[in-house]
Amino acid sequence: MNIFGLTGWSGSGKTTLIVKLLPALIARGLRVSTLKHAHKGFDIDYPGKDSHNHRLAGATEVVVSSPTRWAVMHELRGEPEPTLEALIAKVTPVDLLLVEGFKRDRHPKIEVWRREVGKPLIAVEDPTIVAVASDGPVPEVGVPVFDLNDAEGIAALVVERAVPLR
Question: For residue 6, with 0-12 CB atoms within 10 Å meaning exposed, 13-18 middle and 19 or more buried, which class applies?
Fold first, then answer.
């Protein structure tokens, strides 16, 4: 399984780019999964559902299954957030794992950056960023810059620069 990341500040368009990239990568015959970091808490469950009641009652993990999908919800209950490496170990192997976020981890990444967001370029100081995807010119960086809408070009870069898991 190979890994490649997309990083950038909130509001830069990381998820939008991943949604454009997935069909371009799958069209190349790759099986692709994604792993996303959420800085704030999130919930895929809601009050009134049996699985939500199981969690509220104290279950550490709740597995929900149906004919179309299954999910595992794991409550940390005060334990530290798992590392990227620990999360990857839980992913079913595919050809390519796209990782959104995890900017401090050392896998190759493309930075999604928009000047209007008003945040600094991460690529200036992070050698794991191999390119920038932006909605305008980015002369401050010494890596290739792609238009945010160039899904095919970015997909080619992802395939070329993805690395095998250790």
Answer: buried
For residue 48, what are its two tokens?
Answer: 């009134």
One-letter amino acid at 18 equals I
pTM > 0.85: yes or no: yes
What count of Cα atoms within 13 Å lies in the side-chain half-sphere of residue 152? 0
Res 21: pLDDT? 97
Q: How far apart are CA 40 and CA 56, in angstroms?
A: 19
What DSSP designation does 42 have?
Answer: -
- Would you give the DSSP letter of residue 162? -
The C-alpha atoms of residue 95 and residue 97 are separated, in whole angstroms, by 7
Average pLDDT, the chain: 93
**Do residues 91 and 135 touch, judged by C-beta distance below 8 A?**
no
Give the model confidence (pLDDT) of 82-113 as tens digits: 999 999 999 999 999 999 999 889 999 999 99
**Pick from 116, 115, 96: nearest CA to 157:** 96
Burial class (CB in 10 A: 0-12, 13-18, 19+), 51: middle
